[in-house]
Specification:
The chain starts with a helix and ends with a strand. The protein contains one helix and 20 strands. The radius of gyration is 21 Å and the shape is elongated. Helix content is 5%, strand content 35%. By secondary structure, the protein is mainly β.
Length: 332
């Protein structure tokens, strides 16, 4: 029994000191910039249910900044809509989202610095009725309330929208929900974004998957209270997902496995620009580069010497189409 308690304490200690992806632009960050070629579609419909500016004071009124149209289209293009304490946004798309390699969609908030984080839960549905929530984690301290302009370390946050600053999206991977039978992860039609009331007061507190209170700036008794939704970008719309591109007669990757580099051989049917993208096994974008192809046979040498051992996805994208080839890196 004593040994069991020691092991339990050890694992709890590991959990409390866990570190997740850092802020946008830092090494190892999972943040996705709005201009990344990975985004193929953006939200086309949005319904908003506002929350109070301060849920503990109904006389504060409801959040008032923006309207539902400001959550549509590309991030950074047309303002934001503020949800208020516990407010909800339900996002819809012209075509469903399907599960692809790595992350499948990303949610954008408008925080102006890396550490002022207004957070939100994220749920998805394939029928608009049955929603499944992504398991979220908040390892921030929960004894002292984060004030209206307080700070949060993004390394302590996982699977909560609002983790990254403006113009950088927080990604979500539908693979995490593959075991649920009441949604189809290859035909997601709705995304629900629910503001986290970051209060430590038991009457209003909200909790992560480990029953930790989620502590974020509160109260924020302003018209811009709560999560400020900017946009939702999609990687894999059903109609434009992973497919062979008509611009290419063939793609070959060698050597595979490799220990330091590989060659991507591309037989292009025409001269055009395209993007090279690389994802690691966790679905994080670790490399992106634009380059030009000439008609005929092209060889692109890719330096992999700085990547850790593991399985990666190397992709080539043009317009709204992308093809991926898996590669194994095994340094000697």
């Amino acid at each position: 029994m004593q040994r069991l308690l020691l092991l339990l304490g050890f694992f709890i200690g590991l959990q409390l000191h866990a570190q997740y992806a850092p802020a946008a632009g830092q090494v190892g960050s999972s943040a996705l910039h709005k201009d990344s070629a990975i985004f193929k579609a953006w939200a086309t419909q949005c319904n908003i249910l506002r929350g109070y500016q301060d849920i503990s004071n109904v006389l504060s009124g409801f959040a008032a900044v923006g309207d539902s149209t400001m959550a549509l289209g590309k991030a950074g293009d047309n303002g934001v809509v503020s949800l208020g304490d516990g407010g909800v946004a339900i996002i819809k798309f012209n075509t469903p989202i399907k599960n692809g390699p790595g992350s499948d969609f990303a949610i954008f908030e408008n925080t102006f610095i890396d550490s002022f984080l207004e957070l939100a839960f994220v749920e998805v549905s394939s029928d608009g009725k049955n929603y499944i929530r992504f398991n979220s984690t908040s390892l921030t301290q929960d004894t002292l309330q984060t004030g209206p302009f307080g700070y949060t370390n993004p390394r302590k946050i996982n699977n909560l929208a609002g983790k990254f600053r403006a113009l950088w999206g927080t990604p979500f991977d539908l693979d995490e929900l593959a075991l649920f039978s009441n949604i189809n992860i290859n035909a997601i039609t709705h995304i629900k974004i629910i503001d986290v009331v970051g209060s430590l007061n038991k009457q209003y507190a909200q909790y992560d998957q480990y029953n930790h209170k989620i502590n974020d700036p509160w109260p924020t008794p302003f018209p811009s209270s709560g999560f400020d939704l900017d946009a939702v970008g999609v990687m894999y719309p059903v109609n434009t997902g992973i497919q062979k591109m008509s611009a290419f007669a063939g793609l070959t990757l060698f050597p595979n496995p490799t220990n330091n580099y590989c060659n991507l051989e591309i037989n292009a049917l025409e001269t055009h620009a395209c993007n090279l993208i690389i994802y690691d096994a966790a679905g994080k974008l670790v490399f992106e580069e634009s380059f030009s192809l000439n008609q005929g046979l092209n060889t692109k040498r890719i330096d992999l010497s700085n990547y850790e051992n593991g399985c990666y996805q190397i992709g080539l994208s043009k317009a709204n189409q992308v093809t991926y080839i898996p590669i194994i890196i095994a340094h000697e």
